[in-house]
Amino acid sequence: MSAPSIELPTIAEEPGGKPAAPAGRLAALAGVKADLTVVAGHATAKVGELLALKEGTVMTLDTALNAPFDVMLGDQVVARGELVAVGDQFGVRITEVAPHEASR
What we know:
single chain
């Protein structure tokens, strides 16, 4: 079963009438694969606590229950979203796309 695709909005012009990026340059990147990571939160633990981990242990994250998940490309947040079920797998419904810096 293939993963569902995500449709992103078309890149629009920036304020001031400048295109966000040359269309030809973006088209050249369309087939490049990128690994994304979805982050639910962070936790801090002492090494002794990590060594004592066992099945059923609950680690409290620093994120509120209803907070959005960060979608990361490397160390950059590129979007945020909410967890959804996609068949028998998890998915992320994108609710916010991070602004990008266009080449100048």
